[in-house]
Known about the structure:
alpha/beta; Purple Acid Phosphatase, chain A, domain 2; 5-stranded mixed beta sheet; 8 helices
Amino acid sequence: MAVYAIGDVQGCYNELQKLLETIRFDPGKDCLWFAGDLVNRGPDSLATLRFVKGLGGAAVTVLGNHDLHLLALSQGNLKHKASDQTLAPILNAEDRDELLEWLRRRPLMHHDRALDYAVIHAGLPPQWDIDTALKRAQEVEAALRGEGYSYFCTHMYGNEPSSWSERLEGMDRLRFITNCFTRLRYCTLKGDLALKEKGPPGSQRYGCLPWYEVPGRASESARILFGHWSTLGFSQARNTWALDSGCLWGGKLTALKLSKTEAAEVIQVKCKGYRAKKNQARTLPSLS
C-alpha cells in the first residue's frame, strides 16, 4: 500500500484527476491524505467534494479554512461570503446535506504513528507537542459534530485571542485552536499567533517567524505535513513539508509519497491557474 499526501485542491478537480493518474492511484490498495481546502475558488468544488467523499477509507481529509468557510455559509454565517459564488453548486446540490454532514465530521489533524507523519492544514503554536495538538483538535471536532455546531460556525471568525493559555474557555479557546490548525503561518518569538502576516518568508514584520521556525517548538521532533501557504510553495524545513504549491494560482498540485524509512517522493502536475489572471488577493479578511 502506498500513502500519498496531497496539497490544497480548492476545487481544481481536473488537476486532481491528472495527479492521481500520474501516481497510478489504486483506491483498493493506496490511501490519500488531503491537507485541507478541498473546496472554494476553483472551478469544480462540488465534483471534488463528491469524489473525495466517495473514496471512503481510501482517503483521509483534514479541514482547512475554506472547508470551514463552506460549513459556516451553510449555517447562515455570511460574514465572508465571496462574490464569485464558487461554493453555490454545493449549497444548491441535491446531496448537499449528505456532503456537508460528511465534511463536518472530518478531523483537524491526522497522525499515523506507524508511518510517523502527521498532517494538518496550517500550523501549530510552539507550545504544543503532537499529543497536545491532537487533544486540542478533538475539542473543535467535538464542537463541529455536536449540538453546538451552528453556534460554532457563527462565532468562529476573528483573530483573537492570539496567545495560548490553558485557562482559555468557550469560543475564545475554540477560535484559537481553529486559527492554529486552519490559518496559521507566522508566530511571534513569544509564540503568539501573527495572523495578519500572510506573505512568503521575508515579507513578515520584524519579530515574526514561520511557525515551524520558532525556537524551541514543542513539535519539532515530529514529521508534519501542511498546506495553506501557497506563497511559500512546496518546501521542506525543520521536519515539516509544505504541500500547497499554488495549483489554483497557476502553480502545481503536489503529492508526496510517504515512507517511514525512505525519503519522501515528490510528484507534481502543472495547473491551469484558474485565478492566475484574476484578482491576486489570495485571502479573505479573517478567513485565511
